[in-house]
Write a structure and sequence with these properties.
179 residues; alpha+beta; Aminopeptidase; 6 helices; 8 strands; 36% strand
């Protein structure tokens, strides 16, 4: 599956063929990512990352999540997905990460728009959430730009590198997106 975002950006359903390209992005920006992302063992070796991708593929088959590789000009630059898909309540959470060298170009904002449209139109979801660490200025800017509603702060909700982070919860309803 491929979602074309614009002339230079597209999202491609993650698969083992993406392992090396994404792992190279992680290695090139490991210190940058480690501030807000808990990689666990997934990003420690290429073998572990391949296993992570296999898990993503299995979760897709089970309908639990959909993970995409973010491409800019044909080069993998990040990852984005719909996580914790709840078919009964018709909701999911968007998660994303992007190469530091690609930040500030609108890639994630544009990709989120495309993924949100897909989630509401194709998957029939009613609610999309974005959670971002309180100090993660760039990630917090995305839901603001997309006119999500800030619902509150989940205190010490995520453990990253032995430090608990507060997460800001934003949401968008289908009726808000369509209007």
């Amino acid at each position: 599956m491929k979602l074309n975002i614009d002339e230079s950006i597209h999202l491609e359903l993650i698969g083992e063929q993406h392992a090396i390209g994404l792992y190279e992005v992680i290695n090139a920006h490991r210190a940058h990512f480690s501030e807000f992302l808990a990689w666990g063992d997934n990003g420690q070796s290429l073998e572990n990352f391949v296993n992570y991708i296999k898990n993503c593929e299995q979760n897709y088959l089970e309908g639990a999540e959909i993970n995409f590789v973010v491409f800019s000009d044909g080069i993998p630059v990040g990852k984005m997905g719909l996580h914790y898909i709840n078919t009964q309540n018709k909701c999911a959470e968007i998660g994303y990460w992007l190469s530091k060298s690609e930040e500030g170009k609108g890639i994630i904002t544009k990709s989120c728009k495309g993924l949100i449209g897909y989630a509401f139109k194709e998957l029939g979801l009613n609610r999309i959430e974005i959670l971002a660490a309180e100090g993660n200025v760039r990630s917090l800017a995305i839901p603001k730009k997309l006119n999500f509603t800030k619902e509150g702060i989940l205190r010490q909700a995520e453990l990253v590198n032995d430090k608990f982070l507060d997460l800001v919860l934003y949401s968008m309803l289908r009726e808000e997106w369509e209007s």
